[in-house]
Amino acid sequence: MASVLIQFLNGLASASTLFLIAVGLSLIFGVTRIVNFAHGSLYMLGIYVAYGVITKLDAGAPGFWGGLIAAGLVVGAVGALIEVAILRRIYHAPELFQLLATFALTLVIKDLALWIWGAEDLLGPRAPGLRGAVDILGIAFPEYDLFLIAVGPLVLGALWLLLNRTRWGTLVRAATEDREMVGALGVNQKWLFTAVFALGAFLAGLGGALQIPREPAQLFLDLGAISDAFVVVVVGGMGSIPGAFLAALLIGEIKAFCIGFGTVDLLGHSFSFSKLTLVAEFIVMAIVLVLRPQGLLGKPWAIQRTGATHVEPPLRPATPALNAAAIALVVMLAALPLATTGYTLVLGIDILVFALFAASLHFIMGPGGMVSFGHAAYLGLGAYGAGLLLKKAAWPMEAALAAAPVVAAIGAAIFGWFCVRLSGVYLAMLTLAFAQIAWSIVYQWDTFTGGSNGIVGVWPAPWLAPRPAFYLATLVLCGGAIYLLRRMLFAPFGYALRAGRDSPLRCDAIGIDVQRLQWRAFIVVGGFAGLAGGLFAFSKGSISPDSTMSVSRSIDALVMVLLGGVQTLSGPVVGAAVFTWLQDTIARNTDYWRALLGATILAIVLLFPQGIVGAARALLAGRGRAE
Amino acid sequence: MSAILAVEHLAKSFGGVQAVRDVSFGVGAGELLAMIGPNGAGKTTCFNTLNGQLAADAGSVRLDGREVLGLAPRQVFRLGVGRTFQITATFASMTVRENVQVALLSHRRRLGGWWAGAATLCRDDADRLLARVGMVDQAERACSVLAYGDLKRVELAVALANEPKLLLMDEPTAGMAPKERIALMALAAEIVRERGIAVLFTEHDMDVVFAHADRIIVLDRGRLIAAGLPAEVRANPEVQQVYLGSRATH
Fold first, then answer.
1. Are strands A269-272 and A263-266 parallel, antiparallel or unpaired?
2. Is B189 a domain residue?
3. What is the mean pLDDT of residues A93-119?
4. Domain that holds residue B29
5. Do A506 and B89 count as a contact with CB atoms less than 8 A apart?
6. Per the CB < 8 Å rule, is A495 touching B74?
7. Chain B closest-CA separation from residue A487 CA (Å)
8. Where are the alpha helices (DSSP H) in A33-93?
9. A491, B116: Cβ pair inside 8 Å?
10. Is A495–B94 a contact, with Cβ atoms under 8 angstroms apart?
11. What is the nearest CA distance from B47 to chain A, expressed in angstroms?
12. Above 50 in pLDDT, residue A303?
């Protein structure tokens, strides 16, 4: 009984932190409609800054508590700076670009922290005055955690007063309800947005700083924090503050009890609940999204924003010149092994594999209008499908590779069945949730998947073992698959898919079952990504959850597509080539490749919002007019 | 005249509000029936229950004798119903011709193909439909760049793609200039008469209604208050009262 109470209190303590991060994310989304991917980084920055300030001041209680507040304020100021310097320029850009820009910020902030504080974990001091523990039913419970439990409701109350009892709060609420209306009322929207972003950043920074006595500052805290915060915001309802609080409690408690139960014997099988912690919150989110897509306390959005303001030009079949160029490129690529058998071929294989991966994402994202934040799930399923069939079932390499797309397509069929019931940001979040679930299962199922170590010795058959042979096989398979994707786009299936993206209402009125259509598209691209995954596995010889199905792998694919330009068909291929080459070149030459990558992405988003191919096309069109 | 569409005792409420109560009417082949009424009379609700966009609470809607209540819009389409919307719903990123092609391909159940290019499929039929609505010279343009009146014409061509028995047109001329309205409705009337299509349309513009409707039904606060030939409806005192807003003395 006592241990249940303790688990409950533990859950409350972590719920407070979750709430502080999530409520800022929710506020920012409500007012600016930006899903701030960098919110977890602001949280992480909070811990680091608090550590820096407190260890510098070293002045007991005033230094500690002052340091916490100062950390929040510093992060709030960083937030304001980010809003003014970057986000303000992209409020009218497509949602995806906003996500990409904030993702780039996570890279920059991570390397900033690395540069200032180094790679070591930094453990801060304990809280003066709250160092001890209290006795609760015979179990010692840290005083500081009791303090944290109180922080959540206090912040909720303070925010409620701010939003309901001040003029500024009224404006924030009005902007959440109807942005254009606030603009029409003559409110200076710019500074309202800046202030809200700063407040959200302050709360995230404070949430981080408050963790100082509990956990060390570490560089990977950002991704964990952002996925937790996303889950809380989606479960609670985007833009709803009480929803964020309720969801934080729910998630906090579920996690605490999963850890608390530990390993339990269920019907003769030992079942580890603590292994469920990574998955539990995503399962909750998936259930909520399917049953109540707007979240527990959220309101359904009246009108979807996506597509309405950014209409693509019609697809035109390739010109003879473009076709000739494509054929020339393929011939050149096929001749590459004559020129070199060295590292260039390794890079070439990587680029081909990722070009297919990106092209498959582009297919559902561009023409299909479904943004997936978890596309790596299918790359991973393909890689693990091939790897496991080779190692555990002793299939020949060729058969294992052929099975990779099938395994991934089956996974996509299951995940996609849920995903196509949603749209926009909610769909993106559900794809992320499924990818995380897949990742967690692979990561924790040591006995079958090899856990975090993954599988080694996934080598191709002898006839494909020489590098040029494998390169050519990859060229044939990836090139063929990309060609097939392109054919599909210009076939009736592709027409129907674009129609479903443009107007589900019209589709329904002319007999098209949009959900079914999108589900089929999901399965198809899952299969293609799975093929890329199978090739990836055999090209590397080893696979791990992080190298194949991590969030950052999913983001890589998004960046490739956006880098090339989502409105063009060659975009994902160009994007994959540039991204893979950049990452490879930068990573070999500096410790700060993430920051450089982030800066590159930001430059692209701010300067070439149509991507590389889109910008090139605009340039050509401009020259054509001038002549 | 045998009824293509037979609506009986249709009812739909939202919460406590009865948007449509006990409405019955029929539309015959080749007939243009106008549904009019003040704002909030229940026209759009009635309309959306007919093709399955909204679930009705009670009543029956038969198409050629077949019950359609409970079917999804895409199933109602398969039974031969075309639909245009108050705010046009077209595929903005596709060309005018592609819009019609998609509807034709869907009607002929050929949208599953994934290898052969779609550009040449049903192209002649699409151009024929576009020629009929006067849009064939703009077939290559994207729907996103069309003038609103032209978009309405495209939508009409799309709605005709399944050779419908019944055409449902919700405010076909909304958002258009007065002159364009007359022209569009004249075109629609001409097409449906030559093809013997039954039409139910709602309309705010009384000039359009009295110029083209064969019969008129009037809704007020969810009830059907009058039905008949244009002249009869025009002379109906209850209709006059509703439209002249003298309800206060009612």
1. antiparallel
2. yes
3. 87
4. 1-80+164-250
5. yes
6. no
7. 6
8. 39-57, 60-85
9. yes
10. yes
11. 13
12. no
Q: A182-191: list long-range contacts, CB under 8 Å, 24+ apart.
A: A190/A88
Q: Chain B residues with CB inside 8 Å of A499's CB?
A: 91, 94, 102
Could you give the number of structural domains in chain B?
A: 2
| A492/B111 Cβ within 8 A | yes
Write out the two tokens for B57. Answer: 């609470």
CB contact (8 A) between residue B158 and residue A502? no
Number of domains chain A is built from? 2
Rounded Cα gap, residues B214 and B27, in angstroms: 10
Are A442 and A383 spatial neighbours (Cβ–Cβ below 8 Å)?
no
Q: Does B87 touch chain A (CB under 8 A)?
A: no
Both B59 and B138 in one domain: the answer is no
A143-165 average pLDDT score: 92
Q: For A507-564, what is each residue's pLDDT tens digit?
A: 999 999 999 999 999 999 999 999 999 999 999 999 999 899 988 899 889 889 888 8
Residues B26, B69, single domain; the answer is yes
- Summarised one tens digit per residue, pLDDT across range A14-36 is 999 999 999 999 999 888 888 89
Residue corresponding to tokens 């959440």 = A176
- Are both A417 and A283 inside the same structural domain? no
CA B8, CA B51: separation in Å to the nearest integer? Answer: 15
| Residue A384 and residue A287 share a domain | no
Closest CA to A281 of A235, A222, A238: A235
State the pTM of this model: 0.85
Residues 37-66 in B contacting A (C-alpha not used; CB under 8 Å):
51, 53
Q: Which of A563, A528, A499 is nearest to A367 (CA)?
A: A499
Tell me whether residues A493 and B53 touch, CB distance under 8 A: no
Print the domain residue range for A41. Answer: 2-291
Angle A480-A486-A491 from CA coordinates, rounded to 5°: 120
Strands (E), A99-209: 133-136, 139-142
Rg of chain A over Cα atoms, rounded to whole angstroms, equals: 25
In this structure, the dihedral spanned by the alpha carbons of residues B217, B222, B225 and B226, taken in order and rounded to 10 degrees, is 0
Task: Report the candidate in B217, B214, B208 with the shortest Cα–Cα distance to residue B236.
Answer: B217
- The residue with tokens 């603009």 is A183
- Rounded to 5°, angle at Cα A413 from A407 and A418: 140
- HSE-CB at A532 with a 13 A cutoff on CA atoms is 32
Residue that finishes a domain, picked among B107, B136, B163: B163
A126 and A275 fall within a common domain: yes
Per-residue pLDDT at A203 exceeds 70: yes
- How far from B26 is each of A342, B34, B200, B228, CA to CA, in Å? 78, 11, 9, 11
Helices A343-365 and A467-490, interaxial angle, to 10°?
20
Residues A247, A425, A233: CA angle, nearest 5 degrees: 15
Judging by DSSP bridges, how do beta strands B198-202 and B166-170 pair with one another? parallel
Does residue B141 contact residue A531 with C-beta atoms inside 8 Å? no
Same domain, B154 and B171: no
Measuring CA to CA, which residue among B1, B35, B23, B18 is closest to residue B228?
B35
Alpha helices in A262-319 (DSSP H): 277-291
Residue that terminates a domain, selected from A249, A264, A291: A291
**On the CB side of B75, how many CA atoms lie within 13 Å of its CA?**
11
Encoding tokens for residue A373?
Answer: 């934040």
Closest CA to A435 of A204, A223, A219: A223
Contact of B9 with chain A, judged by CB distance below 8 Å, is answered with no
Indicate if B21 and B73 belong to the same structural domain: yes
Retrieve residue A227's tokens. 């996925």
How far CA A419 is from CA of A48, A283, A397, B39, B56, in Å, comes to: 37, 13, 32, 38, 28
DSSP conformational letter for B77: H
Final residue of a domain: which of B163, B191, B220?
B163
Closest chain A C-alpha to B213 CA, distance in angstroms: 24
| Residue at A336 is within a domain | no
In a domain, B85, yes or no: no
The rounded mean pLDDT for chain A is: 87
